[in-house]
Amino acid sequence: MGIKVVKFGGSSVADGIQITKIGDIIKADPERRYVIVSAPGKRFDGDNKITDLLYSCREQMSQNLPIDQLFQVVCDRFTAIKLNLGLKIDLQKEFDIILDHLQSGVSADYVASRGEYLNAKIIAEYLGFDFVDSAEVIKFSEHGKFQNKETNAALSAELAKHKYAVIPGFFGSRPDGKVKTFSRGGSDVTGSLVARAVSASVYENWTDVSGFLQADPRIVENAKPIHTITYKELRELSYMGASVLHESAVFPVKGAKIPINIRNTNCPEDPGTMITDQPSEESKNRVITGIAGHKNFKVITIYKDLLNDEIGFLRRLSAILEDLKIEIEHMPTGIDTVSVVVASNNIDDKLDDVLDEIERRLQPDSVDVFDDIALIATVGIGMSFRPGVSAKLFTALAEEHINIRMIDQGSSEMNIIIGVNNKDFEHAIKVIYDAFEGKGKELKAHFS
Ligand code: ASP
Asked: Rounded to whole angstroms, how far apart are CA atoms 293 and 241?
């Protein structure tokens, strides 16, 4: 029998009703043995996430403001969950400990982590599973660096002692026992680490959407769901704005070749999206997997005759941006031209410095700056098996009179990135989608 690791995000464990749903999902399959939970998230638009409330408590405390009312809101949320589920767990004892720590000026990481901690305690009791404290098994160094090997060893050793367990997401501890959290959304990472440690057959990540769609449904109405996608394709799409999973959650399971299945707690019958190491038959047969993008880039294009012959030109260009601490998104090159693409908000106040340094260090023939550029990535492992994909994409855009300002095809041959004017962004995505997919029928998940 395989082992399934299941992680439930904040909206899946936001209140008693949601927790009943996750209980049904877990009990429906005895292979679902290790459960990772987030803190209760929003129950409705405008509601507060417990993690945000906890950060606010810590913030108010550090400014010597009273926190009683705010902390009571947190306690009330957990008490309501306990009562709705008909549990006997002694939460008051836990609340007193947290309040004591808060009053003695404990770290923000500790306070924030208590949302996951309390929720995991409650859910363990509800399911009749063991509770395993992440502070004992997720390891960080003294300076807060995540310790991969130590964590894997500690997790495998501890979980071997528990057939069924609930583990709070989002945090671990330093060697002195002090709590350290991952970045926001980090329960996804905990789930991935647990999946690797127990050699799970699948890492199910349950959220409030049924996986990925081929395009943002706010732009492409009825965009089709993606049933299978490779880790590599996902990485390209996430980088360009499609996000369901924490970025770092992919690496532990990817190395161990464990698939991730994104599922919807509110529609458990949906198969969701399966993320795998190797392309499925479906992905090979499909020309494009998805389209994603971002607005607001600047493109600096440098022209210089015989640029190709100048050894070290690209290195000196990257050094200018590195020295000014500006991240480069892309660097497409032509025969006598090279462009650097940067997010506008990373360069706006440094643009003059960049241009001065380009002039001084590279002596270009001329330099152009294009503003308000949007990047659109069309991703698909199937592209590498087929000729004519770019031709189709460019023809479709030309027929709609969309001006392409920049082209960059990744060397993986599964990604064509184009730059268009910000104002053409949505239109271009629709045109590309229609060129390859026509009109979709289903709308069950979305890019967030
Ligand atoms: N509760 C944390 C957050 O809101 C971590 C998580 O949910 O994954 O960021």
From this structure: 6
